[in-house]
Write a structure and sequence with these properties.
The chain is 63% helix and 0% strand. The protein is an all-alpha fold. It has a domain of 30 residues.
Length: 78
């Protein structure tokens, strides 16, 4: 009797793991929308070209943010 319950438990655990694996694999195969700012056209071309476009956009955004002046903290007088 113990063996039957043990085997049944293993089968249930295997079924749960199988369902989770199937769900994860289905999620990785789903197409994701292209990263783009609102108002921009969707990237075209190969995956490599799209990757380079995204990298260029991020680089431009970082450079733009680096050019902005940081607000100076208020001096506290004691």
């Amino acid at each position: 009797m113990r063996a039957v319950i043990g085997i049944a438990g293993l089968l249930v655990a295997l079924a749960v793991v199988g369902l989770l694996a199937k769900k994860q694999l289905a999620a990785t195969r789903a197409p994701e929308p292209a990263l783009q700012a609102p108002g921009q056209a969707a990237p075209t071309g190969t995956v490599r070209e799209q990757s380079q476009q995204v990298q260029q956009q991020v680089k431009q955004q970082v450079e733009g943010l680096m050019q902005q002046a940081r607000p100076m903290p208020e001096d506290e007088t004691k």
